[in-house]
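Form 7-S
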Amino acid sequence: MSVYRRRVQLVAGSTLSITLPKDWARIVGIKPGTELTMKILPDGSLLIYPPSRSDEIHSLRAVVEPRSCSDLNSIAREILSYYLAGFHEIRVIVKNCSDEDVKRLVHFIHEKVLGLELLDEDAESITFQNVVDPESLDLNSSLKRLTRVAISMLNDLVEALKRRDRSILENLVKRDDIVDKLYLLILRRLIEDTTMISNRSELRSASQAIYVSMTAKSIERVADHVRRVATYVLERNPRIDRDVLTLLEDIRNLFEEVCRAFIELNKFKALEIAKRVDEMRNQIKRIESLRDPLLEPLADALRRILAYSIDIAETILDLIALNEALEKRFGTSNKVV
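Output:
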């Protein structure tokens, strides 16, 4: 691999510029006036694409050709896999699907994926196109928004159960779609940031991305369980006593604290939260000991939300340790949160 060194020049009093290697420019067909695509990598490096590669990175196309439309969930999963892999267009062959099947599939994608819009439709296929560039979205801001939405769902669940307000519960069920969209967008961004691991600097960003994706998944799963509790209460209308509500409030506060601790990478708060878990687990066991069939789904949801909160706390400690190791090995932690 050739390595070139260039000194930055000041042009017209305010513009910084560097010259391109002449041999490289000739090989890839760069001439005066040629438009180049530049990508800022997680470690601060700048990647320059020649025109041929620029068209390529913006034109990744996939084709999904299901054997039948009997399982729309499987088709949706395949579409999501291409979306997360960074494909720009996804064509789905639907010649053997009914109009109703196609409508349900389009509705599901619209509800669950941010920026994947229906671009074209004919008798044999439908084509989705990604219209949102994940690179234009700040990862830290997206994580904060994801946590805000999940925390607000828990807050509203507590309020709805206190007031027995069905309208709040119905809104909660719909709001879970926002969490799903944000989670998938964050995951796509993380995958795109780590697809070109050619040096140690990029590798360390990939290592950190693992922990960020784990935390984002835990937050998404908490929102799922809030939605399930809301749906269950709407359908079964169980009697929830004050002790259960108090425990739900405590778990809500714990989840909010651990999310804040992750954004701040607060080791001491993570350790403190871990110590408070056993007491809450004992309270959940007390609810289960009542052997009330109507409370069992709620107790299960509380136990799982608590488990995901602890997963986040442990991830904080792991990520802090990783950052310290990176700082010792490379001189900088290159933090991603």
